[in-house]
């Protein structure tokens, strides 16, 4: 059993009592529904016969108790249905409210060498699509109880007519369930459901891929071509959904045909029996057949549930929690490249230079454990570094939201909002973003910011992180000379004041005055 399946069982255990309540309520709902229709049929048929027999029969007919029973069963069915829906959905929602953050935390703290390979669309599809399927699985756990309650009640009421009536119902029900399971398995082999899930996941992934390219789509007039691609994917999704709907319709049609044949056999074999009891049995058996529908649906969805769980388990098992205990501490930090040693510390001023494609950024990622370790250089705890990457993707939100990511949990607890705001404003000032307010909404991927502003927002966030060594990858790319000079002066002042080390990657000559040592990778 995978680690996720074990965890999922543990996570849902506190909600089992609510799920059990939902199952018992579902069974009681089906029993009440069968009894309500059966008693109604018996009552109406009996009242009709009494009315046809004359005034004396009408006076002798007791309509109070049956009518009271019908009202009771109607009210009970409504209340029990509410309890079933509330308990089942509340348990599923609360359980998945525990699972989702745990899964996200596991991915966020996992080894980046594994998680950075996951595409945003694929991960999102598993978070949203497959977790929702697991939620539906918890809700569907009441289906067997609902079916059994209705079936047992229908059998019990049909016995009032005759034992053979119960046998006829059981035989017809057996054919319905058997045919439904067979059809479900046959269509499942055609991979209709799996195809729908795969297409839906691919559609979401494609959407995430093209969303950041909105300016390029407009600039190169690609909207018509991309819309055609999305339309084709939508058509495939509609086709897959139509196949699933056709399967469900076929199963329901078979169930209706078998039910009709069963009722016809019941009428033919019990023509001379008491009419009110015959009406009771017929209506009870009708609802009994309807009670089997959730059971057939659960059988049909089992493969969908299992595959969703497998996909989430695969994501969960890839995101193995990451520890930094094996990394070298800063006091022993010695970066060795090309036979040269570079001490990593508060006084580090190292420039990594080289032609484009020489592997400068890759060296930084190895150093921070974002790539597999290299035998020729050390690998250190990421807590030692504060990184401003070459392409920093902003968070969808405000500037404040993006900068708050840099603060540790301890800083968020111990510092007041005023103090945090002051630190963020100072970081924006040093990054030459004083024209932007903390509450400015920057949109998805920072669409309201220019390329240079995104870069400087990443620098401001890196400055706020409490780490002894600052890593800047092309920090002045895209900046004019005046802004570049002010940024370099602000960085130099902050590095001296905070006694922080610096590792710099830059093709431009101006930022290089911040460094004393050079690692040339040409």
TrEMBL record:
Pfam families hit by this protein: ABC_tran
Its membrane topology: Multi-pass membrane protein
PROSITE patterns, alphabetized: ABC_TM1F, ABC_TRANSPORTER_1, ABC_TRANSPORTER_2
GO molecular function terms listed in the Swiss-Prot or TrEMBL record: ATP binding
Alphabetical keyword list: ATP-binding, Membrane, Nucleotide-binding, Transmembrane, Transmembrane helix
Transmembrane segments: 21-54, 60-80, 138-158, 164-184, 249-269, 275-296
Cellular compartments annotated: Cell membrane
Record domain ABC transporter: where: 310-518
Residue span(s) of domain ABC transmembrane type-1: 26-197
Protein's name according to its UniProt entry: ATP-binding cassette domain-containing protein
Biological source species: Asticcacaulis machinosus
């Amino acid at each position: 059993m995978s680690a996720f399946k074990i965890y999922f069982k543990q996570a849902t255990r506190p909600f089992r009592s609510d799920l059990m309540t939902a199952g018992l309520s579902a069974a009681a709902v089906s029993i009440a529904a069968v009894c309500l229709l059966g008693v109604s049929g018996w009552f109406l048929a009996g009242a009709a016969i009494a009315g046809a027999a004359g005034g004396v029969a009408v006076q002798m007919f007791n309509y109070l108790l049956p009518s009271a029973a019908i009202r009771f069963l109607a009210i009970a069915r409504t209340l029990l249905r509410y309890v079933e829906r509330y308990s089942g959905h509340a348990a599923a929602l609360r359980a998945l409210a525990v699972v989702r953050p745990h899964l996200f935390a596991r991915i966020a703290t996992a080894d980046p060498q594994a998680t950075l390979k996951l595409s945003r669309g694929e991960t999102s599809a598993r978070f949203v699509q497959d977790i929702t399927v697991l939620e539906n699985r918890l809700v569907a756990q009441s289906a067997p109880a609902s079916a059994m309650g209705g079936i047992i009640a229908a059998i019990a009421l049909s016995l009032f007519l005759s034992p053979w009536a119960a046998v006829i119902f059981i035989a017809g029900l057996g054919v319905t369930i058997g045919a439904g399971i067979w059809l479900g398995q046959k269509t499942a082999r055609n991979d209709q459901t799996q195809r729908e899930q795969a297409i839906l996941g691919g559609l979401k992934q494609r959407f995430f891929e093209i969303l950041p390219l909105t300016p390029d789509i407009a600039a190169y007039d690609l909207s018509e071509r991309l819309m055609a691609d999305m339309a084709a994917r939508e058509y495939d999704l509609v086709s897959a959904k139509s196949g699933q709907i056709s399967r469900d319709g076929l199963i329901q049609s078979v169930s209706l045909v078998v039910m009709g044949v069963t009722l016809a056999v019941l009428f033919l074999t019990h023509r001379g029996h008491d009419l009110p009891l015959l009406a009771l049995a017929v209506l009870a058996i009708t609802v009994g057949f309807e009670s089997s529908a959730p059971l057939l649906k659960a059988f049909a969805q089992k493969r969908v549930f299992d595959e969703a769980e497998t996909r989430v388990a695969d994501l969960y098992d890839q995101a193995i929690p990451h520890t930094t205990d094996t990394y070298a501490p800063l006091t022993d930090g010695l970066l060795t490249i090309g036979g040269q040693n570079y001490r990593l510390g508060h006084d580090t001023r190292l420039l990594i230079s080289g032609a484009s494609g020489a592997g400068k950024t890759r060296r930084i990622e190895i150093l921070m454990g974002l790539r597999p370790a290299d035998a020729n250089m050390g690998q250190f705890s990421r807590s030692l570094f504060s990184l401003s990457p070459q392409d920093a993707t902003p968070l969808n939100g405000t500037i404040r939201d993006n900068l708050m990511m840099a603060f540790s949990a301890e800083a968020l607890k111990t510092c007041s909002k005023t103090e945090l705001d002051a630190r963020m404003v100072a970081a924006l000032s040093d990054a030459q973003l004083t024209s932007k307010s903390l509450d400015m909404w920057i949109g998805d991927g920072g669409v309201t910011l220019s390329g240079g502003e995104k870069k400087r927002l990443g620098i401001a966030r890196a400055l706020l992180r409490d780490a002894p060594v600052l890593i800047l990858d092309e920090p002045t790319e895209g900046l004019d000379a005046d802004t570049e000079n002010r940024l370099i002066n602000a960085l130099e002042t902050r590095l001296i004041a905070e006694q922080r080390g610096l590792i710099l990657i830059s093709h431009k000559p101006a930022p290089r005055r911040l460094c004393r040592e050079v690692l040339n990778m040409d």
